[in-house]
Amino acid sequence: MKKLYFLFSVLAIAVTANAQNLVTNPTFANELTGWSASGTGYALPNHVTNDGQDDSFSVQYVATATTGFDQKFSVVPGATVTVSFWYKAARTNGAATGNTARIWGVFQADGDTTPINPPGTTGSANDPLRNNNLYLAQAATWTQVTVTSEVPANAATFSLQF
User: Fold this and answer.
1) How buried is residue 91: exposed, middle or buried, by Cβ count under 10 Å (0-12/13-18/19+)?
2) Contact 61, 46 (CB under 8 A)
3) Which backbone phi and psi does 135 adopt, to 5 degrees?
4) Closest Cα partner for 153 from 109, 114, 123, 122?
5) pLDDT digits over 114-148, tens only?
């Protein structure tokens, strides 16, 4: 069985709209307050107190199956949303390639779970908020990712998932 090691830290995980950070507990200083498990059978990651990007807090999965965690925010159509986070990800079986971790952020209409594509995209394959339907590269050291997108006209919420 393949195991994945994914460590996620946020000196500043920032989901910002009009320069306002919308993420609850972005640095994991309050463990996993504000974060939820993303799907049926999913579990929250483990809280780590000494291996963050800034040597403080992070969260970690040593996963044997698909898993994830998320937060959902209200957004304003036409606003700009920026997601910035730090991660380390490696396969514990020593493989050089393969699924590790990814961002899966989606805009949605109020009360609907169907993703709404940001302007200029047609689906997950070319949406950087869904990592262009790919996984993040393996990274032995903390690596920062920043993605900016415009909120679609008919979106009311943004679901940030990792």
Assistant:
1) middle
2) yes
3) -95, 155
4) 109
5) 999 999 999 999 999 998 998 888 888 888 899 99
Q: How far apart are CA 143 and CA 138, in angstroms?
A: 10
The backbone torsions φ and ψ at residue 128, rounded to the nearest 5 degrees and listed phi first, read -65, -20
CA 30 to chain centre: 18
Helix H or strand E segment including 12: strand 4-17
Report how far residue 5's alpha carbon sits from residue 62's, in angstroms, rounded to the nearest whole number. 5
Burial class (CB in 10 A: 0-12, 13-18, 19+), 109: middle
Phi, psi of 68 (to 5 degrees): -175, 170
pTM to 2 decimal places: 0.83
